[in-house]
Write a structure and sequence with these properties.
By secondary structure, the protein is an alpha/beta fold. The chain has seven helices and eleven strands.
């Protein structure tokens, strides 16, 4: 890991110049709601930053932003979007919406839980990274860490996590809540770590749904893992792309082709993308894992539990009882 990433400070590493389009990976914390055509992103809640420990329900943050005018809401469309445009748009979206996200979903996520998805699958029960008692002493990279909830849980098990996110504002929330692990603001396609730096890597709805070329991220994760290392990541289940992103009955009828891989884009009046999400079929995801140099160990499709009565964007008990909402890929580096 490069010098400068340590507890109490956010180490920022801008995207580097590459032979391909740079600055491509964006991040999202566990189960962030996807915005589909007909639904637009909401503006952030302004707040102020103070140097004390607080809960994620309080939108305390530096450099408050102005609440946008509803007339400036972006247009939702489906069109091509490359790696650079996707990264630029999503970095800005998460910086603008981090406050609202943590305020709205902080209770569900907790400050120090490891939740894989809106279904509420907890790593305590799932053990996808391994038994908790075996995490002690392991170095773990969390990609798309948001406010560091998962990294905080890993640290409590005796692991040595590093929380990485493309959004500086999300990491300010991690800094506000507190922790003893490094925070790194960087691009998941250009990880600022030496080869073989980590035993494990994880990403709960981070990076992979939002990049134009996920194989670039997978190859980078493989590079920084030691031989035998495991990478577990969760994404929106590909089947969900055929259905409207609505929690009620209107979200139960297929409305578009599952095989249409055209990105979902929100753009401003000048046609500049302000949010981008990319669709991959289930087969695409498996091929990406293999092309990235990993062996697929398991594919988990969490069922909606009876205790979870929450709605989160298009996720809901009604839809969860009938359709898969999340796919979790358990991969290992040989």
């Amino acid at each position: 890991m490069r010098e400068g990433a340590h507890p109490g400070r956010i180490a920022a590493f801008p995207a580097q110049n590459l032979s391909h389009e740079a600055a491509q990976a964006t991040v999202r914390p566990p189960g962030a709601p996807r915005v589909h055509p007909g639904r637009t992103a909401r503006g952030p809640s302004p707040g102020r930053w103070v140097g004390r420990k607080s809960t994620t329900r309080e939108p305390i943050i530096q450099e408050p932003v102005t609440t946008p005018d509803p007339a400036d809401e972006p247009e939702a469309t489906r069109r091509a979007a490359g790696v650079t445009e996707s990264a630029r748009a999503n970095r800005g979206w998460w910086d603008r919406n981090a406050d609202e996200y943590q305020t709205e979903h902080g209770t569900f996520l907790g400050d120090d839980r490891f939740v894989w998805c809106p279904e509420g699958l907890d790593e305590v029960e799932a053990e996808l990274l391994g038994p908790p008692e075996e995490l002690k002493g392991k170095s773990v990279l969390e990609i798309g860490a948001g406010a560091g909830q998962c990294a905080r849980w890993l640290a409590a098990q005796g692991a040595h996590p590093v929380a990485l996110d493309l959004s500086h504002r999300q990491l300010q929330h991690a800094l506000r809540i507190g922790g003893t692990f490094p925070l790194v603001c960087a691009d998941a396609a250009v990880l600022p770590f030496a080869a073989g730096s980590f035993d494990l890597a994880c990403s709960a709805y981070g990076a992979l749904p939002f990049v134009a070329d996920p194989v670039l991220v997978l190859k980078e994760v493989r590079r920084v893992l030691r031989p035998g290392g495991r990478f577990v990541f969760s994404v929106t289940h590909p089947v969900r792309w055929a259905f409207p992103d609505e929690p009620g009955p209107e979200g139960l009828t297929a409305a578009s082709s599952y095989f249409d891989r055209t990105p979902y884009v929100e753009q401003d009046d000048e046609g500049r993308a302000v949010y981008v999400e990319h669709h991959r079929t289930l087969g695409d995801r498996v091929r990406d894992v293999v092309a990235g140099g990993f062996r697929l160990v398991d594919l988990v499709e969490p069922e909606w539990p009876a205790w979870n009565t929450s709605e989160w964007g298009g996720w809901s008990p009604l839809r969860g009882s009938l359709l898969p909402g999340t796919a979790i890929f358990v991969c290992e580096r040989d």
